[in-house]
UniProtKB/TrEMBL annotation:
It is a peripheral membrane protein. One of its GO terms (biological process) is methylation. It is found in: Mitochondrion inner membrane. Keywords: Membrane, Methyltransferase, Mitochondrion, Mitochondrion inner membrane, S-adenosyl-L-methionine, Transferase, Ubiquinone biosynthesis. It holds the Pfam family Ubie_methyltran. It is an enzyme of class 2 (transferase). It comes from Brassica campestris (Field mustard). One of its GO terms (cellular component) is extrinsic component of mitochondrial inner membrane. This is 2-methoxy-6-polyprenyl-1,4-benzoquinol methylase, mitochondrial. Methyltransferase required for the conversion of 2-polyprenyl-6-methoxy-1,4-benzoquinol (DDMQH2) to 2-polyprenyl-3-methyl-6-methoxy-1,4-benzoquinol (DMQH2). Pathway: Cofactor biosynthesis; ubiquinone biosynthesis. Its EC number is 2.1.1.201. GO terms for molecular function: 2-methoxy-6-polyprenyl-1,4-benzoquinol methyltransferase activity.
Length: 360
């Protein structure tokens, strides 16, 4: 009897220990598993929400703050540094950009990341030049007020632009509208703009695809998307010299003129992280744009992407014939494009086109 009690007690203790051991093992596995899952989750979170800030990898929410700090620091010397770094060539590049745009009366244009007004003032001057030379036929749209919206996410850059506008006597000009806004989430309506420009700005956004999609959304059919951006040099020997200048000279110029070496080190690095010309052109096409073209300047130091918001449609004739036409939408009318634009005057191709009606 006594022996049986001992045996029963031992078995009971053994079972308890066994159950406790199993519980500890289960708890340990769950704890370890949760830690592993938490670790993996944190890694996945970092990986899925990481982006580049120059050569650094940072969280997406950090990049906008870092880029904001860069432009807050350089706002007052931004245009001067552009002149110095490019030996004045940036002025010619912007003139080339605006020349492709061909402003017209009643135009609604959006210049993104253009806070200092450098591109907007050129568009404004080009429009006034067209008016003075009376190159455009007066029609039903000419009474509409031309408006150029200067959009920038950084208030310091906008303040620099407003100050320059005041110096030009344009402080109260209604054609220039200054808007604080994000290229990835524009506050403008769909199909509201005739033109969209962005110069040296798109490589600084966190999600380039979103910025392009927003450009596509706000542009009217027949609108123009133009992007001027530092790009990739495609000439081997020149590339080596350009890299040497970029990494050894530009940051030192930034420190000397703007008192900010780090911001211009970021500029140099951000150019190297920006997609090459062909890949960026594909990104524009993927957003829905057609006829994406780009022009390399100075061997690819910069490139201008020129996109016409065009569509292809099938036109059915009364006699049953079907033809494929390239058409454009211009001032709410349809035109068949017969010639390639070769001159700066936007009307040279718009008014030589054949207006389409419901007939062949």
């Amino acid at each position: 009897m006594f022996c049986n009690n001992i045996t029963t007690s031992a078995l009971t203790r053994s079972r308890r220990l066994s159950i406790q051991a199993m519980a500890l093992r289960l708890l340990s596995r769950r704890t370890l598993g949760s830690r592993i899952l938490s670790y993996r989750s944190s890694l996945a979170s970092l990986h899925s929400h990481a982006t580049s800030f120059g050569f650094q990898q940072v969280k997406e929410e950090e990049k906008s703050k870092l880029v904001g700090n860069v432009f807050t620091n350089v706002a007052s010397s931004y245009d001067i540094m552009n002149d110095v770094m490019s030996a004045g060539l940036n002025r010619l590049w912007k003139e080339r950009l605006v020349g492709k745009l061909s402003p017209f009366a009643g135009m609604k244009h959006l210049d993104v990341a253009g806070g200092t007004g450098d591109v907007a003032f050129r568009i404004f001057d080009a429009f006034n030049s067209v008016k003075r030379r009376a190159l455009r036929k007066v029609d039903e749209a000419s009474h509409e007020e031309t408006q150029i919206y200067v959009c920038d996410i950084n208030p310091n850059m906008l303040n620099a632009g407003k100050q320059r506008a005041a110096e030009r006597g344009l402080r109260d000009n209604k054609s220039l509208v200054w808007v604080e806004g994000d290229a990835e989430a524009l506050s403008f309506d769909d199909n509201s703009m005739d033109g969209y420009t962005i110069a040296f700005g798109i490589r600084n956004v966190t999600h380039i695809e979103k910025a392009i999609a927003e450009a596509y959304r706000v542009l009217k059919r027949g609108g123009r998307f133009l992007c001027l951006e530092l790009s990739h040099v495609d000439i081997p020997v020149f590339k080596e010299l350009y890299d040497l200048y970029s990494f050894q000279v530009i940051p030192n110029l930034g420190e000397l003129i703007a008192g900010d070496r780090d911001s211009y080190q970021y500029l140099v690095e951000s150019v190297r992280r920006f997609p090459p010309q062909e890949r960026f052109a594909k990104m524009i096409g993927d957003a829905g744009f057609e006829k994406v073209e780009y022009e390399n300047l100075v061997g690819g130091v910069v490139a201008i992407r020129d996109v016409k918001w065009a569509v292809h449609v099938h036109w059915t004739c009364p006699n049953g014939q079907i033809s494929l036409l390239d058409i454009i939408f211009f001032k709410s009318k349809l035109y068949q494009v017969q010639i390639v634009q070769t001159k700066l005057d936007h009307s040279k191709w718009a008014f030589r086109g054949v207006q389409l009606k419901n007939q062949c």
